[in-house]
Every structure is written in C-alpha cells, then in structure tokens.
TrEMBL record:
Phylogenetic classification of the source organism: Bacteria, Pseudomonadati, Pseudomonadota, Alphaproteobacteria, Hyphomicrobiales
Domain (Core) ranges: 1-102
Spans through the membrane: none
Pfam families: Fe-S_biosyn
Identification of the protein by name: Fe-S cluster assembly scaffold SufA
Family as reported in the entry's similarity comment: Belongs to the HesB/IscA family.
Record-linked InterPro entries: ATAP, ATAP_core_dom, Fe-S_cluster_asmbl/transfer, HesB-like_dom_sf, SufA_proteobacteria
Organism the protein comes from: Ancylobacter moscoviensis
UniProt-listed Gene3D superfamilies: HesB-like domain (2.60.300.12)
Length: 118
C-alpha cells in the first residue's frame, strides 16, 4: 500500500493536531454497504500485535491483518473540491463500487503456493 503526497500531507496534518500521541493511521476493510465492503480508517495510539506496518512519505500506516490481501497494491489519495474532501482508495483488487462510492466489492489477492504438497 502506498500514499500519494496529498494523502500523506493530510494524515500528517491531522496527526500533528492530535491531543494524544499517535503512531499512525490504521486502515482496514469491513463487511457492509450495498456493494459488500467498506474501507475503514482510524488514527492509532499503538500498533496492534499483528498489524502490517508500512511507512510511506513519512506516514506510518498500520494495516489490519484481516485486510492485507484486500489492500495489496492499493494507493490511498486525498481529494478536495468545492463540495467535499475525502480519502480515495485506488485499489486494483476492487471489482465494483456502489453508486454513492461508500462501499465496494473487493476480491482478495490469491496467495501463490510453491513446492510439493502445497
């Protein structure tokens, strides 16, 4: 997972204003919405035991272990216009999205197995 410069700047800005010390942004997915899944984001005060931790453009991203195969290859962006500002996930594993853009259908990356007996 990577971040655009706009996403990294927004995360850094929000974290800098936090009253609590934060280690990074936790990203995941959950079941819900009309397309089947929704992205989740929350600022984290500590890393979870099984979180996948990446650092990109000075931002630490903690990926929920249940979401790793859904988020491989994803780029997180931040877009702002006159009416809204939001994080956007450019996910190659996403197969469709609902009309409002709040939920998505995502196919997990298939792990390749090698060797005999796999």
């Amino acid at each position: 997972m990577t971040l655009t410069e706009a996403a990294a700047e927004r995360v850094r800005s929000v974290m800098a204003r936090s009253e609590k010390p934060l280690v990074g942004l936790r990203v995941g997915v959950k079941n819900g919405g009309c397309a089947g899944m929704e992205y989740t984001m929350e600022f984290a005060e500590e890393a979870g035991r099984f979180d996948e931790v990446i650092e990109d453009k000075g931002v630490k991203v903690l990926i929920d272990p249940k979401a790793i195969l859904y988020l491989l290859g994803t780029e997180m962006d931040f877009k702002a216009d006159k009416l809204s500002a939001q994080f956007v996930f450019n996910n190659p594993n996403q197969t469709s999205a609902c009309g409002c853009g709040e939920s998505v259908a995502i196919t997990p990356v298939q792990q390749e197995t090698t060797g005999a007996g796999a």
